[in-house]
Write a structure and sequence with these properties.
By secondary structure, this protein is mostly helical. The chain contains 11 helices and no strands. The longest helix has 23 residues. InterPro entries: Homeodomain-like_sf, HTH_TetR, Tet_transcr_reg_TetR-rel_C_sf. Pfam families: TetR_N (PF00440).
Length: about 200
């Protein structure tokens, strides 16, 4: 039976979303094509009808996950984002959490297309968080540097916490200390509001 174009696109989306979760949970090298396709409900042979290579899928899956993180930042200020991001709930939700924290180390060893996807995702998140602080338009170099610093600190906190045993008091201590430090480093809300009006 011939698959319609719409069904083929839906199948591809299902594979990308499944891969996005599995890669975040197990790493890029921790998931084989056969396992991935089985988890999505398809046969191994169908993979190469949809993707040129595993690297192509890795880039698409990373874009999917980074897009999910970006959508979570919509309409909230940086302090609220940090509270949600640097939390035990996020730490424990590897498969549905931030792609940068789950796969950033893996991405550094992947083809340029995968690394470019991460760079685009980082830029998108910085822009979204910057708009919350300064309003529409370009953000200042100082605000951009602050957002990059906060984002790097938040991602690093999640990575370090995940490196500890799940029941380790250190895992929670890393999150609490980092959340507090990042929140303190953010400009006060009044300053961000005044910058928007100025």
């Amino acid at each position: 039976m011939k698959v319609t174009k719409a069904q083929a696109e839906a199948n591809r989306t299902r594979v990308v979303e499944t891969a996005s979760q599995l890669f975040r949970e197990r790493g890029f090298d921790g998931v084989g094509v056969a396992d991935l396709m089985a988890a999505a409900g398809f046969t191994h042979g169908g993979f190469y009808k949809q993707f040129g290579s595993k690297a192509d899928l890795m880039a698409e899956a990373a874009a999917c996950g980074l897009g999910q993180t970006l959508s979570l930042s919509a309409g909230i200020d940086a302090a609220t984002f940090v509270r949600h991001y640097v939390s035990r709930e996020h730490r424990d939700g590897r498969a549905t959490g931030c792609t940068m924290a789950a796969l950033g180390g893996d991405a550094a060893r992947q083809p340029e297309a995968v690394r470019a996807t991460f760079a685009n995702g980082i830029e998108g998140l910085v822009a979204a968080l910057g708009q919350q602080g300064e309003g529409a338009g370009a953000i200042s170099a100082e605000a951009r540097a602050g957002i990059l610093d906060a984002l790097a600190h938040a991602v690093g906190a999640l990575v370090l916490s995940r490196a500890c045993p799940d029941d380790s008091p250190l895992a929670d201590e890393i999150l609490a200390a980092s959340r507090e430090a990042i929140t303190r480093s953010l400009p006060p809300k009044k300053a961000r509001t005044a910058a928007t009006r100025g």
